[in-house]
């Protein structure tokens, strides 16, 4: 990874993921710059979610390398990668619906927690202080999304509507103070207006956090156009184009692959 500059937070080189004979990712070189919102777009089955899965440790790379903040994370387990500052949301909600909003958000705070058995069982006061601190931070984050949500901190997640569940998932991704957040189809299961609202809220929080780096996978091109600094376009697991949305959208190769029109 000698090419890594200070400007690049995540770098993949020759990244390949194979499922049997299928190349879901095929020698992919992607740079994600510090502080940018990168859109990852492409037709169905082009490898977008596989890329998120392999950089977050859900899938193993068949070949190639990934580095995050200069650390080689290619063979790291998901929990280690998260401890290096990468968090994510999923296409389908992964909330534990029977647990409270607080419990769900606290699951995302592992990176900043002192959570050894000794600490939790014997150091009861320190443990309680940590839980209070997470509750405070969770309230603060929830309040940025929806001023009514902090009062629901100890309600079961199942009692929330879809848009608030998505907000809780995003708070879970943000509570551990990540450097890089992966958003996998934030519009899934929500109306156009709800998606716009939540994404505006994320961008507002991003600003207040001083420029969090985000990779967003999304089929809603209006949303991609509105929120991204740059886009990478995949087709059959390969990068076919990158640049500003308006430039990639006008590229004939992209139009043929993605929009079905040359
Ligand atoms: N666990 C898996 N086992 C086998 N094949 C898989 C697996 N995950 C993904 N694939 C295949 O890898 C290719 C890329 O899939 P992926 O889900 O990454 O595409 P995508 O661009 O995210 O698609 P979509 O836009 O439809 O979500 C597809 O052909 C898919 O069927």
Automatic annotation (TrEMBL):
CDD domains attached to this UniProt entry: ABC_Mj1267_LivG_branched
Origin superkingdom: Bacteria
InterPro entries: AAA+_ATPase (IPR003593), ABC_AA/LPS_Transport (IPR051120), ABC_transporter-like_ATP-bd (IPR003439), BCA_ABC_TP_C (IPR032823), P-loop_NTPase (IPR027417)
Pfam families reported for this sequence: ABC_tran, BCA_ABC_TP_C
Gene3D superfamilies cross-referenced by the UniProt entry: P-loop containing nucleotide triphosphate hydrolases
GO molecular function per UniProt: ATP binding; ATP hydrolysis activity
Keyword RNA-binding: no
Keyword Nucleotide-binding on entry: yes
Domain spans labelled ABC transporter: 10-261
Cellular component terms per the entry's GO annotation: plasma membrane
Keywords: ATP-binding, Nucleotide-binding, Transport
Function per UniProt: Involved in beta-(1-->2)glucan export. Transmembrane domains (TMD) form a pore in the inner membrane and the ATP-binding domain (NBD) is responsible for energy generation.
Name of this chain's protein: ABC transporter ATP-binding protein
Top-level taxonomy: Bacteria, Pseudomonadati, Pseudomonadota, Alphaproteobacteria, Hyphomicrobiales
């Amino acid at each position: 990874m000698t090419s890594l500059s200070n400007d690049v937070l995540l770098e993949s080189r020759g990244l390949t993921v194979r499922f049997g004979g299928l190349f879901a990712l095929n020698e992919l070189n992607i740079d994600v710059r510090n502080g940018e919102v990168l859109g990852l777009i492409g037709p169905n089955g082009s490898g977008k979610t596989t890329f998120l899965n392999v950089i977050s440790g859900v899938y193993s790379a068949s070949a190639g390398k990934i580095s995050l903040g200069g650390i080689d994370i290619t063979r790291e387990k998901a929990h280690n990668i998260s401890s290096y500052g990468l968090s994510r949301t999923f296409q389908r909600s992964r909330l534990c619906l029977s647990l409270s909003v607080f419990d769900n958000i606290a699951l995302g705070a592992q990176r900043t927690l002192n959570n050894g058995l000794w600490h939790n069982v014997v150091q009861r006061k320190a443990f309680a202080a940590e839980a209070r601190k997470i509750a405070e931070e969770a309230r603060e984050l929830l309040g940025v999304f929806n001023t009514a949500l902090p009062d629901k901190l100890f309600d079961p997640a199942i009692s929330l509507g879809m848009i608030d569940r998505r907000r809780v998932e995003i708070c879970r991704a943000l509570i551990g103070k990540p450097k890089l957040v992966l958003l996998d189809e934030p519009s899934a299961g929500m109306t156009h207006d709800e998606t716009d609202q939540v994404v505006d809220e994320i961008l507002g929080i991003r600003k207040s956090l001083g420029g969090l780096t985000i990779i967003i996978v999304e089929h809603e091109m209006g949303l991609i156009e509105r929120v991204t600094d740059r886009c990478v376009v995949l087709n059959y697991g390969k990068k076919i184009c990158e640049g500003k949305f308006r430039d990639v959208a006008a590229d004939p190769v992209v139009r043929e692959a993605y929009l079905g029109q040359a």
